[in-house]
Amino acid sequence: MVYLCLHGAKHAFERIEWICDIDRLIRISDVNWEEAITIAERSHSKRSFFLGLSLAHHLLQTVLPSEITESIDADDIRTLQVMTLEQMSEKNNVRSDFKRNKDTFFYQAKLFDQKSDMLRFYLSTFFKISTNDCQTFILPENLKLLYIILRPIRLIGSYMHRFFVTRNT
Prior knowledge:
Elements: H1 2-10, H2 16-28, H3 33-42, H4 46-60, H5 66-74, H6 77-90, H7 97-109, H8 115-127, H9 131-136, H10 147-168
Helix pairs in contact: 1-4, 2-4, 3-4, 4-5, 4-6
């Protein structure tokens, strides 16, 4: 169940059947809630776990133990729930890639349980070399390390361009 919640959260529960799977699993099995929470804590995915449970409870009236609903309320999962529902309802709307990527980026950043995981996510996103980096800046083999410096420059330029283009249209 933790995996279902984590996977769904990563993709902003873009498929309603993922929430249905969480509901179905809770309804047909005798869930060991303490063990599930322990697994979620160990994998630093408690917020994602609670988000999946919260969505199942909200959309499908999945019955949850009071300790779980209290934890959901204490961790302000409702904000993530609202963001998820907004993304689900906007799924078929036409949005620019820039807006979609920006929304997804900030949504995923809110899923992390620990600030260190969030920082690692930001750094990884900002400095992880992509195919676009290698195609934009063609460097000889001995200068490949420069991609780490050039990536943030490319990203800033790309997003600034998209920001001003979408703002002016």
